[in-house]
Write a structure and sequence with these properties.
The chain is mostly helical and 334 residues long. The protein has one domain.
Amino acid sequence: MHGNLLLAPLVAEPSQLMNILQIECLQPIYTFAFSNGLIACFVFMGIGVLLDVGYVMARPFESMFLALAAELGTIATFPVAMAWGLTANEAASIAMVGGADGPMVLFTSLKLAPKLFVPITVVAYLYLGLTYGGYPFLVRAMVPKSIRMLPVRAAKVRTISSGAKLTFAMVTCVVLCLLFPVAAPLFLSLFVGVAVREAGLKDFETFIGGPLLYGSTFFLGLLLGVLCEASTLLQPIIFKLLVLGILSLLLSGIGGILGGYAMYFMSGRRYNPVIGIAGLSCVPTTAKVAQKIVSEDAPRVIIMPQALGANICGVITTAVICGIYVTLIPLLAK
């Protein structure tokens, strides 16, 4: 059982029938769009139409490096969770919280730890709401004000055509789907959204980025609330999930900033390391956090283009980590 939505079709007590009628309207949504991860794919498709991959293509090395550095939590938390008594499947699912991507956590936990997908996803969304307020404190603790005010050297801006972006989306999607077929629905959904944006299909773009994205997000939260019973949150393992979730996000934030420092030294101290926090994949929140922190100290310094490149690349790298976990963990467990 996954909670109170998977109910027996036959009832003998009228009280049971009344309980079923209260949530019957959500049963089809759970069965056809939630339990199989389809709702996560819808959210990813909506994210895709919001992404401008031109930021990544303009600075591919920089964006990919920062995004990989910001995956520290998704990688380092896995052995910690294993050492704390979690199974490999459970450890991989909670480690994905460090990617700062709720639908990705939902997809991974549904595939690897279906019995714990509700508390793991709730932990993910709980901490995502809290850490966006906490990341500025982390950045200020690790990056001195004099460095936070560092202007980014203006580089020559390359004009990237929609055709080039569309080609990038198609090639990247095919390569990632072939490498990680288990996570192919996520990759396909994301890059379909990008393709719709770059192809100029305005009506589809409006629908996917509006009703589909917000409707899927609404029902995702609603169904999680329905499934999140008190008994679920009182399980002994919940404390471990809470600690590991915040550890994963903390390590990812630290990893992103350390990646920013690496770029700072490699560029001859001409790169603002605050951009590293944008390597976490929640688009565009962490990019906005980075720009807001810098603007408070130096209102004329603009780091948003570089931050968005790292941010968008973070979505891709988090999906790759998800594909690695979902593909390899079941093989290693055999």
